[in-house]
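Morning. Coffee machine broken again, so started the prediction first thing and wrote up yesterday's gels while waiting. Chain of 149 residues, entered below exactly as on the submission form.
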Amino acid sequence: MPHLPGYRPNRLSLGPLEREILEILWDCGPAATRDVYERLLADPDRELACASVMTVLKRLTQKGWLTCDETGRAFLWQPTVSRAQAQALEAHDQLQKFLQAVTPEAIAAFADHLDPTSVAQLQSIARSVEQARAQQQAQRPIHEFRGES
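Came back before lunch.
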């Protein structure tokens, strides 16, 4: 999974149609409203107005998930983060919520009931975190360690 991107959408929550539209844009790249609409209507059982798609695209822009480039009479929509970056943001958000809601004792109790593969994964994650922190420390200028500015 990639590192967290420097940019973060204003709101991470997405509805089903918002997520589906993002998936379309991640798959096909920047697209006009009409292109997104036609991809959504590839499902013959779906009934959806083009104006509704435009509303959702605008809402995704307000949430910070998309940018819009108005070229002539067409709007060209593009995601602000990649699919992998979005997954990293969502995983980070879920982890933060979990850590805020659960005590260290409860987490330790969960660990007692994990299978060996899960325990090995957690140990690998802990090693990766320690390595990343050590690497960050090694890259800091010396004056930061002394408390100088």
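The chain has two domains: 1-101, 103-149. Going to sketch it on the whiteboard this afternoon.
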